[in-house]
């Protein structure tokens, strides 16, 4: 064995530990012999199993730095490579960058394949495939373990049965339809039954003859797929009876691939499927079927010529796990090798230490390419190609109690088509534990989530991620949820784009913070062309800043307060109690978590959205507020964001260059907005995969010459002339038509019934209110006067502020002032009896006032029929209606701006009627215009939500 003192310094870029020791080289070649000593490339051993099982433990090898030099060719593993214990470094690598495949299966020579002659079989094949399909007698080919057909999809890391790969490409179990799905038409035994009907255009005549049929589908939800065995196909009634029920229930399907989002109507999701594992459905190249009774394989080759020659390489997968690395084995490295055809995982590790995968290709697995569970430390996956697998890299480690880092690194990899079979659990990267780094990866075309994280202090940065959530709904390209304690995580400097929904169901997002996920920092990312760039699903303390949010198709950001409704409070509190969040260590790291129960933990408090730049087409909102928690503006504190009105405010969006120009550049320099990360700064910094693949590949160039930038557009449109109608309860924005004769000075009462002081009945000027001199001071007097009168249940006090005509009432209960929903009612003020009876609105100001907006929306958001809610015991009121309205109380610099008016310019030029933040921004604008006097605040009323914002 050759011995040299060298430094095993493998990769400069990734700072792999450098170890000085004796080195030993062991050569392995598929043409070698296990009776060779393996000391030189001319005397290689034959099998990796021999190297690992016997040679690594031998004296003279053990304890040294060992290089296992794999020579060109296909290294078939005879059994799982079980790496038990090592005491030095062991590096498995391709010798001199040769093309090396390590395969968990057996090669089937093309001479084993024959055209189908048995007329019974030919009759069952579709006409078009009878002369294309080839058969193999597996027993004669020496294969006895056909594996088991198991469920795949929702929550499952799949162990495949025997699969077939031709020239490295996976075949599919024969299925129909080959693309898209069939809808369930009816469910005769109801949603929890196991029968459903469908319309397959008569094709099912042959399904009834199948011996082992399966179905794969999205049964109830667009985020929960499953394959299921079938017990019976009835081709007369077109009914399938399942052998096993789906995880959730059955539903009728409305999937329509011709519609955007695959949707026929509304949000109906689930209820569509394919049939799988049917001989009669080998109707396309690339499909196969195994007759398990007669142990016969049938394939329609997916080669260019649709047949097989001796140069085609066909493999059948046999091993469940290809390589297992025990925790006793440390400092193991795999480099420059293709690993493929494993029924479950490529590499399985548990509690591993110091393991490195570098420049690998891992493909064609049923489960994850690399799965490291338990407490994995210093495990690195670098510069590798991972594709056509059941999941990419799934890794957890570190010590959460003591917040000790795992030092796991997943960097510079190219990961794609990582949910080859089954969508939901097959994440490209699943990161758990403490401080893993996921950086510079390129991830794309996953059926469900690209990066899923749990735990603490992870960094997800400089990744290029796109076309995720490809076949599902309610999904995030980067996704986590349902835990308050997963804190300290950062998602920054990523390019995230083209995450769009093609299937029915809830939205998909670039980053999805599901079910009260809290306290992530999302900064310096560039988002473009996603349905929704990111959401906050009712969680707390999330910060979204310094991001470019370009061209959302639904909304840029979506926020809600789901914890205030039927949230997951019990579950979340349970998880909180199982974390040491009250220790000094956790307190110092996550102070807001320490005191979470002192607040209202289910409320979406502490979220901040600031210094982001947005561009959307007209009508697409920047921040969409849905459900609970709308009126509390501090729940989602959005400020100092810039809304671009033209694509010309970016250097070259078509080339993903979002450097700011024009108005955005001016805003950017005053707001210290950093330069957006460029496309060539994200994704792998090195060519990925084994050397033999890299030499044939064009290096990806992302540098483009942007077209010359168009001039800055500075056009402003003429303001809208139509002013939406104001409140029926005069609020100062229009003349008071209810009490038109009240004098224009002072504060006035109109009292109909005053049992304690009957002389106060009638119309009187109020001294206290007049002295106060403000509209607010006058209106606050109505309630005081009504109480002074003895709080009569059958009486009201109206207060009118002369100079503006603004008024309110002091009375018992909760009121609506309205023009009616659709009728031509001239306008009335009446008790909101529904809310008084059902929503405690007579006793709670908040419950009374929150009625206006939903009632107005319920009426169809009519521009000229606003709704005002008035809480009698305080006289407080709130109006919901159309438009952004501005109240300028005093404007020393421009007296003509004083008053309460509809923001016509903003409605036309800044979308203030549909964009809350933009409306609120007008308060600051007018305050500055009026001279920035701290005692002259300006209020902007965003009427669609009945909410307002006062500046300063
Ligand atoms: C990894 O190896 C280095 C170098 O031998 C060592 O210092 C470090 O402690 C190891 N890490 C783990 C988690 O075992
Ligand atoms: C996922 O959707 C894409 C785009 O519609 C399609 O090309 C692909 O075949 C689908 N994958 C599966 C497994 O259905
Ligand atoms: C006027 O009334 C308002 C509202 O009730 C109150 O906040 C303010 O202190 C009063 N000002 C004076 C001078 O009485
Ligand atoms: C109604 O609201 C009042 C004021 O917030 C509160 O004190 C009371 O408990 C509430 N009643 C019910 C039945 O919720």
Rg (C-alpha, Å): 34 Å
* Low-pLDDT residue intervals, each spanning 5 or more residues: 1-12, 16-20
Cα shape: elongated
Arrangement of strands in the largest sheet: 1-2-3-6-25-28-31-34-37-40-43-46-49-52-55
Number of helical elements: 15
What percent of the residues sit in helical stretches (DSSP H or I)? Answer: 10-25%
Mean pLDDT, all residues? 93
Main β-sheet, in a few words? 15 strands, mixed
Structural class: mainly beta
Distance between the amino and carboxyl termini:
79 Å
Bound molecules: 2-acetamido-2-deoxy-beta-D-glucopyranose
- Number of beta-strand segments: 70
Please report which band the strand proportion falls in: under 5%, 5-15%, 15-25%, 25-35%, 35-45% or over 45%: 25-35%
Signal peptide: 1-21
Region (Disordered): 701-732
Keywords: Signal
Domain Right handed beta helix: 329-416, 428-560
């Amino acid at each position: 064995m050759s011995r040299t003192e060298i430094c095993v310094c493998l990769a400069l870029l990734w700072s792999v530990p450098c170890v000085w020791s004796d080195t030993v080289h062991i050569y392995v070649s598929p043409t070698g012999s296990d009776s060779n000593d393996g000391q030189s490339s001319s005397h290689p051993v034959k099998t990796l199993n021999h190297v690992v099982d016997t040679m690594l433990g031998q004296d003279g090898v053990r304890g040294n730095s060992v290089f296992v030099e794999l020579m060109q060719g296909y290294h078939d593993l005879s059994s799982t490579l079980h790496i038990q214990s090592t005491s030095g470094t062991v590096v498995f690598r391709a010798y001199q960058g040769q093309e090396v495949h390590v395969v968990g299966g057996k090669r089937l020579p093309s001479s084993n394949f024959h055209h189908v002659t048995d007329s019974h079989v030919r009759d069952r094949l579709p006409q078009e495939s009878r002369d294309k399909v080839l058969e193999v007698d597996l027993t004669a080919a020496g294969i006895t373990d056909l594996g088991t057909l198991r469920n795949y999809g929702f929550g499952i890391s799949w162990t495949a049965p025997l699969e077939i790969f031709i020239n490295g490409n996976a075949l599919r179990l024969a299925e129909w339809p080959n693309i898209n799905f069939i809808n369930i038409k009816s469910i005769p035994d109801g949603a929890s039954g196991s029968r459903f009907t469908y319309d397959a255009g008569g094709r099912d005549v042959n399904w009834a003859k199948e011996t082992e049929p399966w179905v794969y589908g999205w049964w109830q939800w667009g985020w929960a797929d499953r394959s299921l065995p079938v017990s019976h196909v009835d081709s007369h009634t077109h009914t399938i009876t399942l052998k096993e029920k789906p995880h959730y229930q059955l539903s009728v399907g409305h999937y329509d691939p011709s519609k955007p989002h695959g949707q026929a109507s509304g949000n109906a999701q689930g209820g569509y499927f394919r049939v799988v594992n049917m001989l009669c459905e080998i109707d396309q190249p690339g499909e196969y079927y195994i007759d398990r009774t007669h142990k016969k394989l049938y394939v329609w080759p997916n080669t260019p010529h649709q047949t097989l020659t001796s140069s085609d390489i066909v493999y059948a997968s046999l091993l469940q796990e290809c390589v297992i690395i025990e925790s006793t084995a440390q400092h193991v490295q795999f480099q420059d090798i293709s690993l493929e055809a494993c029924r479950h995982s490529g590499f399985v590790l548990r509690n591993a230490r110091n393991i490195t995968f570098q420049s690998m290709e891992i493909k064609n697995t049923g489960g994850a390419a690399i799965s490291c569970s338990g407490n994995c430390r210093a495990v690195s996956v670098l510069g590798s190609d991972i594709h056509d697998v059941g999941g990419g890299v799934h890794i957890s480690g570190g010590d959460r109690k003591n917040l000790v880092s795992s030092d796991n690194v997943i960097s510079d990899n190219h990961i794609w088509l990582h949910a080859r079979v089954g969508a939901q659990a097959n994440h490209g990267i699943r990161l758990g534990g403490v401080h893993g780094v996921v950086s510079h990866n390129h991830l794309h075309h996953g059926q469900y989530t690209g990066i899923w994280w749990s735990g603490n202090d992870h960094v997800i940065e400089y990744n290029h991620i796109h076309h995720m959530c490809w076949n599902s709904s309610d999904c995030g390209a980067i996704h986590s949820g349902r835990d308050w304690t997963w804190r300290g995580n950062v998602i920054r400097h990523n390019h995230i784009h083209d995450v769009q929904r093609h299937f029915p169901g809830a939205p998909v997002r670039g980053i999805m913070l599901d079910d009260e996920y809290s306290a992530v920092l999302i900064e310096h990312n560039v988002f473009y062309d996603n349905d929704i760039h990111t959401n906050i699903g009712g969680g707390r303390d999330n910060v979204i800043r310094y991001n470019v949010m370009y061209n959302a198709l639904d909304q840029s950001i979506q926020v809600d307060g789901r914890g205030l409704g039927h949230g997951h409070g019990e579950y979340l509190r349970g998880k909180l109690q199982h974390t040491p969040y009250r220790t000094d260590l956790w307190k110092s790291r996550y102070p807001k978590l320490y005191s979470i129960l002192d607040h209202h933990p289910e409320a979406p408090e502490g979220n901040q959205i600031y210094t982001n730049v947005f561009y959307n087409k007209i009508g697409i909102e920047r921040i969409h507020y849905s459900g609970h928690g709308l009126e509390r503006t501090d729940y989602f504190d959005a400020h100092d964001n810039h809304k671009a009105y033209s694509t010309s405010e970016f250097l070259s969006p078509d080339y993903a260059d979002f450097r700011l120009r024009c108005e955005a550049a001016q805003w950017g320099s005053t707001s210290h907005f950093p330069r957006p990360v460029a496309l060539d700064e994200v994704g792998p910094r090195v060519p990925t995969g084994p050397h033999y693949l890299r030499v044939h590949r064009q290096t990806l160039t992302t540098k483009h010459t942007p077209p010359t930038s168009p001039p800055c557009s500075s056009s402003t449109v003429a303001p809208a002339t139509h002013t939406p109608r104001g409140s029926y309860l005069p609020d100062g924005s229009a003349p008071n038509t209810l009490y038109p004769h009240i004098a224009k000075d002072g504060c006035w009462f109109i009292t109909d019934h005053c049992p304690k002081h009957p002389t106060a009945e009638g119309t009187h000027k109020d001294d206290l209110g007049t002295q106060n001199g403000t509209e607010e001071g006058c209106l606050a007097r109505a309630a005081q006067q009504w109480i002074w009168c003895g709080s009569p249940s059958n009486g009201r006090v109206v207060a009118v502020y002369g100079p503006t005509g603004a008024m309110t009432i002091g009375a018992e209960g909760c009121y609506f002032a309205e023009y009616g929903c659709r009728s031509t009612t001239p306008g009335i003020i009446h008790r909101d009896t529904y809310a008084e009876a059902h929503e405690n609105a007579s006793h709670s100001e908040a419950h009374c006032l929150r009625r206006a907006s939903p009632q107005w929306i319920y009426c169809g958001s009519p521009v000229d029929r606003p709704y005002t809610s008035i809480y009698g015991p305080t006289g407080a009121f709130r109006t919901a209606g159309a438009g952004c309205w501005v109240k300028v109380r005093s404007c020393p610099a421009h007296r003509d701006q004083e008053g309460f008016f509809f923001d016509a310019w903003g409605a036309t030029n800044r979308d203030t009627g549909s964009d809350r933040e933009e409306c609120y921004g007008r308060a600051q604008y007018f305050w500055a215009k009026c001279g920035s006097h701290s005692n002259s605040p300006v209020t902007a009323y965003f009427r669609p939500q009945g909410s307002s914002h006062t500046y300063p």
